[in-house]
Design goal:
Length: about 90
Amino acid sequence: MNIFVGNLSPEVTEAQLAELFKTYGEVKSVQLMRELFTGVPRGFGFVEMPGKAHSLAAINGLNGKDLVGRPLKVNEARPRPERGRHRR
């Protein structure tokens, strides 16, 4: 299951996030989103966990938990909306 993690401090690393989620089960991948050209953290990311039960436990256990001075917003990631093609 793909999990959205928001309200992240710019200091948070992928390793920190993986370690936090590992307490609930196997972590398949962690991706922190950054601005395309500047590389500045955007304050959110995604954690992928293989089992639904472990994913739901992580969501329930970590939503609102403080990480580096900020309460996390953790929920199931929604599919990205389709973008229409622009015609010129």
